[in-house]
């Protein structure tokens, strides 16, 4: 039996639909990511599950019970927002204990649980600090601790890392994933960042215009996008219509093709010739734009050393892995 089941969920504001006919199931302990561009409905869907936004129709089942009629306080759900929403007049310990106070948990039990969760998020030494005395990453860990301390059956995370710098974001996403796995906590995470989704999730639900257009693990979404939107959003696919694909491969192609940039290899001799038009250094990857048979391709090559960088105007040969050719709608 699924731990979370969303059935035919619909939300609209007047005549404006946000999402409709949303259906999915989540197993106990799974880490699910709702991924998609701004305005696709992912944050509204999360708020509907939390009870912060009403739904127009459908069911939200948690462990066999429909949450829709229940108030947010009775859903046994923890939620972490992009904005930390900490009380500025309370220190870390008091902020984390707030939910327990609302649940009327005894003082001794509260102290014990707060101490446990502060140790879990590595904030014990900062227990007496106030929000203005801490960094953004530390404040976000306080918000996470405040959600965990009530021992929710379901944890919801609404773009909690988007306001943080890249180094802190990477460390915190690793920490969140480790804590989630340690506690076997069923989690739904919202992001528009494909790297976060690919590295953190058991499964990803890719959303566009109020629909879940594809779902699966990171490997399946990355290597087998179902349509042009999925191919464009996950990775930096080369999207070729049938005419350009036929011209590039020199054989009849009836459908649109998606080709991953890293599945094209470069050499100085070969059958498919092209010319480097531009290049970008992306740390461990060099990204080239290459014109071959009047078709521009993006090609990613591992940056092993400074000598690997080829200049603009260089003639090169390309080899495309036939296994990496993906037909998309």
Structure notes:
- The chain is of the alpha+beta class and 329 residues long.
- The strands form four sheets. Strands 6-7-8-3-9-10 form a six-stranded mixed sheet, with helices on both faces. The protein has a five-stranded antiparallel sheet with strand order 13-17-14-15-16.
- It folds into two domains: 4-232, Rossmann fold (3-Layer(aba) Sandwich), CATH 3.40.50.300; 236-328, Beta Barrel (OB fold (Dihydrolipoamide Acetyltransferase, E2P)).
- The protein is globular, with a radius of gyration of 24 Å.
- The mean pLDDT is 93.
- The protein is built from nine helices and 18 strands.
- The two termini are 33 Å apart.
Secondary structure topology:
Layout: E1 4-13, E2 16-26, E3 31-35, H1 42-50, E4 57-62, E5 65-66, E6 77-80, H2 92-102, H3 107-120, H4 136-148, E7 154-158, H5 166-183, E8 187-191, H6 194-200, E9 203-208, E10 211-216, H7 218-223, H8 228-233, E11 238-240, H9 242-249, E12 256-259, E13 264-267, E14 272-282, E15 285-292, E16 295-302, E17 315-320, E18 325-328
Parallel strand pairs: 3-8, 3-9, 6-7, 7-8
Antiparallel strand pairs: 1-2, 1-4, 4-5, 9-10, 11-12, 12-18, 13-17, 14-15, 14-17, 15-16
Helix pairs in contact: 2-3, 2-4, 3-4
Overview features:
Rossmann fold, globular, six-stranded mixed beta sheet, 9 helices, single chain, five-stranded antiparallel beta sheet, alpha+beta, OB fold (Dihydrolipoamide Acetyltransferase, E2P), 329 residues
């Amino acid at each position: 039996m699924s731990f979370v089941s969303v059935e035919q969920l619909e939300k609209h504001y007047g005549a404006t639909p946000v999402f409709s006919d949303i259906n999915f199931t989540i197993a106990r302990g799974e880490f699910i990511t709702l991924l998609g561009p701004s305005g696709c409905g992912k944050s509204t869907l999360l708020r509907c599950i939390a009870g912060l936004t009403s739904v127009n129709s459908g069911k939200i089942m948690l462990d066999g019970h429909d949450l829709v009629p229940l108030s947010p306080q009775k859903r046994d759900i923890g939620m972490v927002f992009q904005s930390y929403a900490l009380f500025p007049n309370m220190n870390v310990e008091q902020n984390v204990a707030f939910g327990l106070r609302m649940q009327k948990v005894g003082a001794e039990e509260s102290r014990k649980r707060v101490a446990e969760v502060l140790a879990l998020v590595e904030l014990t030494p900062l227990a007496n600090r106030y929000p203005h005395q801490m960094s953004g990453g530390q404040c976000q860990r306080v918000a996470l601790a405040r959600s965990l301390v009530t021992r929710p059956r379901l944890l919801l995370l609404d773009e909690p890392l988007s306001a943080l710098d890249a180094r802190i974001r990477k460390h915190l996403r690793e920490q969140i994933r480790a804590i989630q796995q340690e506690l076997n906590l069923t989690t739904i995470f919202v992001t528009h960042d494909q790297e976060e989704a690919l590295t953190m999730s058991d499964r990803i639900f890719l959303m566009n215009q109020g629909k879940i257009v594809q779902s699966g693990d990171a490997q399946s979404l990355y290597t087998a996008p179902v349509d042009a939107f999925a191919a464009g959003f996950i990775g930096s696919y080369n999207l070729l219509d049938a005419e350009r694909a036929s011209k590039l491969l020199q054989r009849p192609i009836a459908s649109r093709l998606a080709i991953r940039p890293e599945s094209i290899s470069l050499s100085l001799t070969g059958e498919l010739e092209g010319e480097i038009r531009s290049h970008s250094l992306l740390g461990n990857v060099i990204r080239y734009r290459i014109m071959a048979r009047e078709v521009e391709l993006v090609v990613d090559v591992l940056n092993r050393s400074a000598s690997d960088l080829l200049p603009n105007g260089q003639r090169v040969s390309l080899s495309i892995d036939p296994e990496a050719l993906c037909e998309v709608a």
